[in-house]
Amino acid sequence: MSIKALRSEAPEEYWLPGNSSCQGCGSTLALRWVLKALGKKTVMVVPASCANVYVGWWPRSSASVNYFDMAFAAGGSVASGIVAALDYLNKKDINVVAWVGDGGTTDIGIQALSGAAERGTNFIYICYDNEAYMNTGTQRSSSTPLGAWTTTTPFGKGQQKKNVPMIMAAHNIPYVATACSSYPKDLYEKIKKAKDIEGTKYIHILAPCPPGWRFDTELTVEIGKLAVETGMWALYEVENGVFRLSSPSKRVMDPSKRKPIQEYIKLQGRFKGITDEQIRELKNYVDRQWERYGKMEEGCPVF
Questions:
Q1: Is residue 219 within 8 Å of residue 24, measured between CB atoms?
Q2: Listed residue (15, 27, 274, 17) closest to 134, CA to CA
Q3: Max Cα separation, the chain?
Q4: Do the domain assignments include residue 241?
Q5: CATH number for the domain harbouring residue 98
Q6: What is the DSSP letter of 232?
Q7: Which domain holds residue 211?
Q8: Looking at the 3D structure of the chain, how many domains does it have?
Q9: For residues 148 and 271, is the Cβ–Cβ distance under 8 A?
Q10: What's the order of all strands across the beta sheet hosting 175-180?
Q11: How far is 82 from 44, CA to CA, in rounded Å?
Q12: Which of 12, 28, 193, 257 is the most interior residue, by most CB within 10 Å?
């Protein structure tokens, strides 16, 4: 399906213009297409994050769906409670979705997410990953990549990014997927698929952040595409334990087809202080991940 056909299929806008997100915000680009895929009958559960700010204040909210703000650690818990309440009321046609940043997912909220997944709660948990605590001043999260500057890692983070999609796949939930705000068609189709699957669904979206990553606002889509084209971010699905690369990432399965990771890094001021050794470590890490993806694509079990 082309973008033109996609717009024709989903003409309604549930994320409205005039919101207070930063210019070039990758997460709001993603949220627009997420809500198009979900439709009006959606309840959004939003722990503390940028998304609590850019939604705006009622009655001038940018979201035209139910949108609940709550504490950092409570995404999985509140979503579970809403699902239970809707079940009690026998309302089966409402999508319950947690829309959570990487800090509220990979760090502060992972216990509630894991608990909901273990219980098999019927909801979609979406992590929009801008790779740091952006709303509170660009502090390091466990999703921040090796070598990236943050206010709490002024000389660059010393650890690799935590692989939460694979952690969630280890919970044996029916659907795990990765996406990127620069690929709306891929994102839209994965959300559409997830909403029709019973049980816990986890989707992890890479969402480039101009102020936090330190690049010009006009480069948001290009940066996201480079993340995929260099192999720094892979697009895939794990459906009922079966791993499958998505089309944009299948094209770079062959290492010779990937762009050098330096093309991705050089456009971002957060990597200004990265060392040659850290670049080699990043490349080795990416190569190891892709070796694993290749084995899973050939049928080796995810876990």
A1: yes
A2: 27
A3: 58
A4: yes
A5: 3.40.50.970
A6: S
A7: 3-297
A8: 1
A9: yes
A10: 66-70, 42-47, 95-101, 123-129, 200-206, 175-180, 236-239, 242-245
A11: 10
A12: 28
- Quick one: 221 exposed, middle or buried, by C-beta within 10 A (0-12, 13-18, 19+)? middle
Residue at 93 is within a domain: yes
* 303 domain-assigned: no
Q: For residue 75, count other CB atoms closer than 10 A to its CB.
A: 31
Per-residue pLDDT of 94-135, as tens digits, reads: 999 999 999 999 999 999 999 999 999 999 999 999 999 999
Return the structure tokens found at 162.
């935590």
In a domain, 302, yes or no: no
Q: Residue 58 and residue 79: Cα distance in Å, rounded?
A: 21
| DSSP tag of 63 | B
- The pLDDT, as a whole number, for residue 60 is 78
Three-class DSSP category at 93: coil
Segment holding 87, helix H or strand E: helix 75-88
